[in-house]
Amino acid sequence: MHTIEFERLQLKDGLCVLDLGCGEGRHVHGLYYAADMVCLGMDLSLEDVLHTRNGFDTFPDFSDDRGQSYGLACADALALPLPDACLDRVICSEVLEHLPDYKTALGEIARLTKVGGIFAMSVPRAWPEKICWQLSEEYHNTPGGHVRIFDAAQLRADIERAGFRFTAKHYAHGLHAPYWWLKCLLWQRRDDHPLIRAYQRFLEWDILARPWLTRFMEAIAAPLCGKSVVMYFERVGDP
Q1: Which fold has domain 6-125+143-172+227-235?
Q2: N- or C-end of the chain: fewer Cβ atoms within 10 A?
Q3: At what angle do helices 212-225 and 177-185 cross, to 10 degrees?
């Protein structure tokens, strides 16, 4: 399940790309097969990094026939262990809402991105996220949980001040917002409630099968109630 639309990243052979806050690898796995690139995944959680590595071990390895490679590391988004201007593309999906000092993370992303490079990010969309917060205190008030609800316009301005030019925006996961509202409403039984399990099976089926009916439903739902707001930027120089 990709939140970032890869076709907007202008991916091609020879690039170096970073999935910052890669989690269990959903974007960096896709990047690895998109072109002959150096694909990096970094996350603060060792467990998630190991899960991402195991995912690579599960999929076919074409590196003998192609020029792509990957690297994984535990790293803090506020002090990334990479040299200046070394990245052509950076993805940071559903990460900034977890960081108390997200502006320092944006500064690190700007430091690492080459002029002309593309930065793609996503955070929870404000009004669906507010419903989650109202339905469940535990949803956000847990270790590693969401520390803020972003105003997309303010976040865009913060990223532009870091040295980027805004290029595009869209919303994603319209079918997922009701699922999270249901999980928050039934938080104490979120892992075993039959309604939640049934909705999860529906979403998993949709992701794998991608039937035309649910793709049509998602195209309608995403602008209306998409769980995530996704924005794209070009690195233009020092702030």
Answers
A1: Rossmann fold (3.40.50)
A2: C
A3: 70
